[in-house]
Amino acid sequence: MASISIPLPLRERAKTGLLGWLATVDHKKIGIMYMVMAFSFFLIAGLLGLVIRLQLAAPNMQIVDAHTYNQLFTMHGTVMIFLFTIPMLVGGFGNYLLPLMIGARDVAFPRLNAFSFWITLGAGLVMFGGFLLGARSDASWTAYVPYSNKTYSPTIGMDIWLLGLILLGIGSTLGAVNFLVTLYTMRAPGMTAWRIPMFGWAMATTAVMILLATPVLTAALIMLVADRNFNTQFFSANQAQLWQHMFWFYSHPAVYIMILPAMGIVSEIIPVFARKPLFGLRAVVISTALIGLLGFTTWVHHMFVSGVDPVLERFFMFTTMVIAVPTGVKVFNWLATLWGGSLNLKTPLLMCIGFLATFVVGGLSGVMMASIPIDQYVHNSYWVVAHFHYVLFGGSVFGIFAGLYYWVPKITGRMFDDKLGKLHFLLMLIGFNVTFFPMHHLGLLGMPRRIATYAAGRGWETGNLIATIGAFLLAFSVLIFILNVLKLRNGQPAGDDPWEGNTLEWSTASPPPEYNFREIPVVESERPLFDARWRTSHLP
Amino acid sequence: MLPPVTRDAQLINELYNVVLALAILTFLVVEGLLIYSIVRFRRRRADEMPEQVHGNRTLELVWTVVPAIVVAVIFALSVDTLGRMTARGTLSNPVAHVHAINDQEARRRVERAQPVDMVIEVIGRQWIWQYKYPGGDGVITNEELVVPANKNIRLDMTAADVIHAWWMPELGPMIYVNPGQMSYVWFNVPPGEYIGQCNVYCGVAHANMISRVKALPQAEFDEWYAKQAAATSTATRPGDPEAGKQLFMNSSCVACHYIEGTKAQGRVAPRELTHFATYPTIAQLDGFENNAENLARWLRDPQSVKPGTAMPNLNLKAQEIADLVAYLQTLK
Question: Cis peptide before A511, with omega less than 30 degrees from 0?
Answer without folding.
Answer: yes
